[in-house]
Design goal:
The chain is α+β, with helices and mostly antiparallel strands. The protein has two domains: about 120 residues, Diaminopimelate Epimerase, Chain A, domain 1; about 130 residues, Roll (Diaminopimelate Epimerase, Chain A, domain 1). It contains four helices and 19 strands.
């Protein structure tokens, strides 16, 4: 099997991007796992497939697959990468990308891209949780982590606030929290240090992918959680291990994310 691809990343959150608009591709769980493998494949945090639009008024559909073969509903960093490609093609400063979680409008912001990630979902049933609970103060504790916030940005997030993100053993705690029984569809896990009302520092364990250098939807969830707790303003810099994103929770309840993207190389995967 031969697949043309681009290798792209947003703040080190890296992707194998496959354009399937002209020629559909069938990617089994085994193929996705092999593509994502950093020793026996290309290597990435997610495989992104650009497909023809499914509705009028959008430029393309974006499918997002984790290294374990599962499908994700949102990926902010990948959205910026795909939006940049679509805007280069059209020579326009805007693009609209459809995902299984909804339509994401994007705008050029100098060399960066701004994506409207939509409104956060804060009700327990919309996260979703397995049972009714206060999403601002979940009854979850594991080691030094306690009293988290739940937010959905098209995918579920569990946000913990800590004094020092570097002191948390995320590789040990992340997998257990990802599979917490309160999250029937598993969850992303963010640990967050409040530097100031305008700066948040974040590390992430991504559902189906593990530790990554950045998570765009996670940065959005982090800002929403911090603002709901009164720990930050509604606009702040979120510092990730791969770089920073500017997150703005607008008055219309939509969360806007601005950050960098990069195409690293192109290639042909021979299976």
């Amino acid at each position: 099997m031969s697949l043309s691809f681009r290798k792209m990343h947003g703040l080190g959150n890296d992707f194998v991007v496959i354009d399937a608009r002209a020629r559909p591709v069938q990617l089994s769980k085994q193929i996705l796992e092999r593509l994502a493998d950093r020793r026996f494949g290309v290597g990435c945090d997610q495989v992104i497939v650009i497909e023809p639009p499914r509705h009028e008024g959008v430029d393309a559909f974006m499918a997002i697959y984790n290294p374990d073969g599962s499908e994700s509903g949102a990926c902010g960093n990948a959205t910026r990468c795909v939006a940049a490609l679509l805007m280069q093609e059209s020579a326009q400063g805007a693009a609209r990308i459809e995902t299984i979680s909804g339509i994401l409008p994007a705008l050029a912001a100098g060399n960066d891209v701004t994506v409207d990630m939509g409104a956060p979902r804060l009700d327990w049933a919309d996260i979703p949780l397995a049972q009714e609970a206060d999403t601002l103060h979940l009854p979850i504790e594991l080691g030094p982590l306690t009293d988290p916030v739940a937010v959905s940005m098209g995918n579920p997030h569990l946000v913990f606030f800590v004094d020092d993100v570097s002191a948390i053993d995320l590789p040990a705690l992340g997998p257990k929290l990802e599979h917490h029984p309160l999250f029937p569809k598993r969850t992303n896990v963010e640990i967050v240090q409040v530097v100031s009302r305008d700066v948040l520092r974040m590390r992430v364990w991504e559902r189906g992918a593990g530790i990554t250098l950045a998570c765009g939807s996670g940065a959005c969830a982090t800002l929403v959680a911090a603002a709901r707790r009164g720990l930050s303003a509604r606009k702040a810099e979120v510092q990730l291990e791969g770089g920073s994103l500017l997150i703005d929770w607008k008055a219309d309840n939509h969360v806007h994310m601005t950050g960098a993207w990069l195409e690293v190389f192109r290639g042909e995967w021979l299976g």
